[in-house]
Automatic annotation (TrEMBL):
Record protein name field: Eukaryotic translation initiation factor 5
Any one GO molecular function term: GDP-dissociation inhibitor activity
The keyword GTP-binding belongs to this UniProt entry's keyword annotation: yes
Annotated region described as Disordered, given as residue ranges: 144-185
Pfam families found in the cross-reference section: eIF-5_eIF-2B, W2
Length: 398
């Protein structure tokens, strides 16, 4: 691989660390007074940080006392003078610390918000804290004059998109109870409908599949699923009320199973009403209750809900645990479909490559018995191989 991949926080020595970026590359061009340093993969690095590529380039100029230039159309980002890659990588670490990482939890999953008072805030999607940046730094003047552009979040993986593709929205409103990112219910409903329509042509089919079938076979299938949900809703961790028939998780599970066609907004509202919308265990419950034999089709229609609720590595692992229980215990005939299921969640921007790879190579008894865990992971091998080959293809392209 020409550029290599490193942890966004290079002080974190964990090969399974969720947040990754390409290793910054440099190329010296010209000579004499016209010598300059080009950063050929600045766009890829910046995309992984969810920042415009002009920000770290300008930061280098501020720190080095050098002029910078940008040709966004031709994807060229230049710092005047000769600067080796090691120096710029060290400066990138400083930029990440000052303008990307949450000051509270040190997570890079932040948006930059410009307030009415022209202060720049890091809004953390991981812990919810809002922390300011040092407004004395020269880069802040550039950011105020060139605020982040509002744009749709791109896919984290696949094709030309790299992790955390796309700039975060400018001046995003903080999440409010009962809403997605501060939007009104009407606005949210419109947005989710629009997103769901774009996700997959099969989404309409998925919704039709949820129409009530009163045949004897269908009734038996629903009864089987309900009994399985009650029996298999053990969550594999330390919640004291999981065994209680009235636990909020079981309430959510049975409600979602009976209201599959309610739509992402109403399902999320129900989880909020029960006080568990942000709990990672809720994700597992919803996987077990919203899906049946047609899970591959149904994922597309529910993608906006899971994109909203899956906000950390722990949430992703819980989702995978739900998949294990669904295909391993409720619908074992679905085990051969595990690669398609994983692909659907991956393409919906819900699962990250690193998390799936780690899950697929480590048998666990947390959600199912060891033998079932082995079977599910064995079935996932074609998808894991595809991920590996996709990485190899990216390396060749570079």
């Amino acid at each position: 691989m020409a550029a290599g991949i490193v942890n966004i926080r290079r002080d974190v020595d964990d090969k399974f660390y969720r947040y990754r970026m390409p290793l910054l590359l440099t190329k010296i061009e010209g000579k004499g007074n016209g010598i300059k340093t080009v950063v050929p993969n600045m766009s890829d690095v910046a995309r992984a940080l969810s920042r415009p590529p002009t920000y770290p380039t300008k930061f280098f100029g501020c720190e080095l006392g050098a002029q910078t230039s940008f040709d966004e159309k031709n994807d060229r980002y230049i710092v005047n003078g000769a600067h080796d890659a090691t120096k710029l990588r060290e400066l990138l670490d400083v930029f990440i610390e000052k303008f990307v990482l949450c000051k509270s939890c040190k997570n890079p999953e932040t948006d930059l918000i410009i307030t009415k008072q022209e202060e720049i805030i890091r809004d953390c999607k991981a812990c919810g804290e809002r922390t300011g940046v040092d407004m004395r730094h020269k880069l802040t003047t550039f950011i105020l004059k060139n605020p982040p552009k509002t744009s749709k979040k791109g896919k984290k993986k696949g094709g030309a998109d790299s992790p955390s593709n796309g700039a975060h929205a400018e001046a995003a409103t903080p999440p409010i109870d009962g809403e997605f990112d501060g939007e009104s219910d009407d606005e949210l409903t419109k947005r989710i409908k629009a997103e769901a329509a774009d996700l997959n042509a099969d989404s309409k089919l998925a919704k039709e599949d949820w129409s009530v079938d009163t045949s004897e076979e269908a009734v038996k299938a629903r009864t089987k699923a309900a009994e399985s949900l009650m029996a298999n809703l053990a969550l594999g961790d330390d919640d004291d009320d999981d065994d209680d028939a009235n636990s909020p998780y079981k309430q959510l599970g049975f409600w979602a199973q009976d209201n599959r066609d309610a739509g992402p907004v109403e399902i999320y509202k129900k989880a909020e009403e029960l006080g568990i919308a942000k709990k990672h265990k809720s994700v597992q419950v919803l996987v077990q209750s919203l899906f049946d034999e047609d899970i591959v089709k149904q994922i597309a229609a529910n993608a906006p809900l899971f994109k909203k609720m899956v906000t950390s590595e722990k949430h992703q692992k819980s989702l995978l645990g739900g998949v294990e229980r669904l295909v391993g215990m409720t619908y074992p005939e679905l085990i051969p479909s595990v690669p398609k299921i994983l692909m659907a969640f991956y393409q919906a921007d819900v699962l990250d490559e690193e998390v799936v790879t780690q899950w697929g190579t480590h048998v666990s008894k947390k959600y199912v018995d060891k033998e079932t865990s082995k079977k599910v992971r064995k079935a996932s091998e074609p998808f894991l191989k595809w991920l590996e080959e996709a990485d190899d293809d990216d390396s060749d392209d570079e």
